[in-house]
Amino acid sequence: MHFELIIKYLRTVTTIITILLLFVLLDLLFPLPEQKQYSKEILANDGTLLSAYLTEDDKWRFKTELEEISPELIKAIIEKEDSWFYWHLGVNPISIVRALYKNFISGERVSGASTITMQVARMLEPKERTYLNKFIEMFRALQIELRYSKNEILEMYLSLLPFGGNIEGVKSASYIYFNRPPDKLSLAQSVLLAVIPNNPNSLRLDRINDEIIIRRNYWINKFRNENVFSLNELDDAFEEPVEPNRFKIPTLAPHFSYYVKENFKEYKIKTTLDLSIQQTAENLLLRQVKAVFYKGITNGAVLVIDNKNSSVVAYCGSADFYDDGSFGQVNGITAIRSPGSTLKPALYEYAFDNGTLTPQMKLADIPTDFNGYQPENYDLKFYGNISARFALVNSLNIPAVSLLRRSGLNNFTNFLEGCGFSEIRKQKGKLGLSLILGGCGSTLEELTRLFSAFASKGSLHPLVYRVNELANKKSVKVFSSASSFLIAEILSGMNRNDIADLKNYSKLPKFAWKTGTSYGKRDAWAIGFNPNYTIGVWMGNFNGRGSPHLSGAEVAVPLLFDLFNTIDYDTDEKWFDFPDELYKRKVCSESGLLPTKFCSNVIDDFAIEDKSHNEVCNIHNPVYVNLDETIQYCTECLPANNYKKVVYNIYQPELTVWFTENNYNITSPPQHNHNCNAKFSEKGPRILSPTEDYEYFVEENSEQEIVLLAASDGKVNTHYWFVNDEYFGKTKPGNKIFLIPETEELKITCLDDKGRDESVMISVKYY
To answer: Which fold has domain 686-766?
Structure first.
């Protein structure tokens, strides 16, 4: 007897093991089909749906999570479709027996006994409804149950349910039929969505359909009889009208949504976009474009960064995405444009950190030839000997180009490449000194991100577009805290030529900003920052057409002021903290360098510990002269008496020439004692024209002339000119003499009255 029981036990165990092995083998041979592709959903930081996109098979199929669904909808679907869902292993044997009995009695298939899990299997792998395929569904259901939790299976089911046409999933249906997320559905709407999948092409909510009302009411009454919901809820649901509708999926922040969709892989992306700030930026941008439209300016773009976490909170790629006439679907935030003067703050900060510049250090703003490149200021004026602060605030071009040459073009382009300027990286072998005036390509995204580093104590962060990235942001230190503070202070002043009318900004927050205007007036920029936000504005035309009104000060600054005044209105946020490594020191007012005992006027300047230069002023020079100041002496010819020492301002030669030409009242030392035979080792004359190694094109037989011009310090009174080592003529320093070239290769030499000289070689081409 015991032997027979053991045999039966062994047979049972063998059967179970065989079935399990068979199942494992079939599971390996016939794995579950891949899950279907879902529509990409782009959400604002508060969870609002900004936009969504069709799947590759042209379906609205949103991936649905249980917390997104109203409890009434979940309850209605489970009670209607599979009340034992949480208790079976994918197949309900009782339901199968009951279905087989009903089908046998009726002689046709009236019940399928499909569980929710089996329906998921059928939706993942649609097949004709046969008994064989029903067994396959059961096998698939077991596979699904072994791989996924009940909640995951229910989420798949809610995401795949058909609702007619190309609508799949309760979330898609909720937005398209009711224009609301599925957690905001009423009980009546929930019951409707539970009913439709039984016959999705007939029971569609975008058509007038009495049958769907009949089916809804049937299930409301059934739920009443089974006490599934409260009577009051069911009564309200019964009375709720059914209106046929098909709403469009939201298309908020279209440029931003498309950018996120293209750059991130998830099906559902919760972004950092603040819908309130976004709508404010959109409205102000559209208003500004309408205001300047008659000036031939048809578009603009705005990017707003929250400096606390480098997140993008507003992103307007154009004034109107749907304005085809103005190319509204072009994204002005990622479009490559000429940056105008917007890179100048980065260059000045780069020089502050290199120790070669401080805010009060003087730079020359005079006509300058940079090997054939002769930039001019925006207002076509020159300001002479000005401070770095003044040059940056007023966006003067010649000081910026000179500073770039001194800092090193390759050094600065490498720096910008490291800051993420991709077009500059591609172009850098072809770029010249005009880069700092906009002779390169960049985007509003790159520029605004760079300016956000000024607001982050010199740390450059990647822009954050997704909420889940906020805790993982990495940064690169590109500037010091001290130089960033200096840029903020310099660019936050209100005494400047690119300022807007302030009468409408009673509680405007403090912020720093820089404008830019590209060559040909095709791009207008204004980028500003404070501790709270960095805001970038671009105005222009996407077809590249220029306008005489397209300047940063005229059309971009007013929008920047409006944005700060609205987004950051009446803020109580304090200004940037004064860095520990920054300190004040006295400098000469004439040079911006450390004063000597001969510097009569000193002013305050900022310097960075262990970085800023310690150059001493070289402008105020004591000179020995006779008593009536008509003869200058050196130590070799200094008489025993009847002389005195006088301090003269000796500027660099080019400045001396410019001061003379522009009638500045400067006093130069008298001519050196002509009886002195001493040799002088200081630097001699500096030839300003012609330019070294430059080709001059001259029309043949035209008697076209080349200008000879040189500068010297104030101690020199005469220049002697030689052409191909033959004497040509003499001038006073800063005076011009003209040459008609007679050969194709010319050596031009200038000799001063102290025996010092400089030579340049030029080529002449005749045409």
So the answer is: Immunoglobulin-like (2.60.40)
> Looking at beta carbons, which pairs linking 308-311 to residues 24 or more positions away fall under 8 Å?
308/532, 309/272, 309/464, 309/470, 309/473, 310/452, 310/456, 310/461, 310/462, 310/463, 310/464, 310/473, 311/272, 311/463, 311/464, 311/465, 311/470
β-strands 40-43, 268-270 pairing: parallel
Q: Is the peptide bond before 690 cis (omega within 30 degrees of 0)?
A: yes
CB atoms within 10 A of CB 194: 25
Strands 602-608 and 620-626: unpaired
Q: Is the dihedral angle over the CA atoms 546, 551, 557, 560 positive or is it negative?
A: positive
Alpha-carbon torsion (678, 681, 687, 691), positive or negative: positive
312 and 465 in contact (C-beta within 8 Å)? yes
Cα dihedral 170, 173, 175, 181 in deg (nearest 10): -20
Q: Return d(Cα 382, Cα 232) in angstroms, integer.
A: 82
Q: Which residues pair with 596 in a beta bridge?
A: none
Answer for the pair 367, 399: CB distance below 8 angstroms, yes or no: no
Residue 236: partners with Cβ closer than 8 Å, 6 or more residues away? 186, 187, 188
CA dihedral 546, 552, 555, 558 (to 10 degrees): 170
CB-based burial, 647-666: b 16+ in 10 Å, e otherwise: ebbbbbbbbbbbbbeeeeee
Q: Letter for the amino acid at 758?
A: E
Which residues fall within 8 angstroms of residue 210, CB to CB, at 6 or more apart? none
- Domain covering 253-337+442-481+492-579: architecture: 3-Layer(aba) Sandwich (3.40)
Comparing 363 with 736, the larger pLDDT belongs to 363
Q: Under 8 Å CB-to-CB from 33, ≥6 apart: which residues?
A: 124, 125
d(Cα 647, Cα 620) in Å, to the nearest integer?
6
The amino acid sitting at 438 is: G
Residues 585/564, Cβ–Cβ less than 8 Å? no
d(CA 365, CA 400): 9
How far apart (Å, rounded) are the C-alpha atoms in residues 127 and 462?
48
Tokens of 149: 């939790």
Burial of 161 (0-12, 13-18, 19+ CB in 10 A): buried
Residue 55 burial class via C-beta count within 10 angstroms: exposed 0-12, middle 13-18, buried 19 and up:
middle
DSSP at 406: H
- Are the C-beta atoms of residues 575 and 531 closer than 8 Å to each other? yes
- Per residue in 637-676, pLDDT (tens digit) is 888 888 888 888 888 878 888 888 888 888 878 877 777 7
DSSP labels for 9-71?
Answer: HHHHHHHHHHHHHHHHHHHHHSPPPPPPP--EEEE-TTS-EEEEE--TTS-EE----GGGS-H
Q: What's the whole-number mean pLDDT along residues 279-290?
A: 97
Beta bridge partners of 695: 763
Q: Helix or strand or coil: residue 318?
A: coil
How confident is the model over 347-355, as a mean pLDDT?
A: 96
Residue 696: how many other CB atoms lie within 10 Å: 16
pLDDT tens per residue, range 500-534: 666 666 678 899 999 999 999 999 999 999 999 99
Predicted pLDDT at 110:
46
The position carrying tokens 């309200």 is: 236
Q: Which of 426, 472, 416 is nearest to 447 (CA)?
A: 416
Q: Which CATH class is domain 32-239?
A: mainly alpha
- Neighbour tally for 709: CB within 10 Å: 20
Helix (H) or strand (E) holding 604: strand 602-608
The helix (run of H) or strand (run of E) holding residue 215 is helix 210-225
Report the alpha-carbon distance of residue 538 to residue 552 in Å, rounded.
Answer: 8
Asked if 556 contacts 587 with a C-beta cutoff of 8 angstroms, the reply is no
The residues, any chain, with a CB within 8 Å of residue 399's CB and separated by 6 or more, are: 363, 364, 365, 386, 388, 391
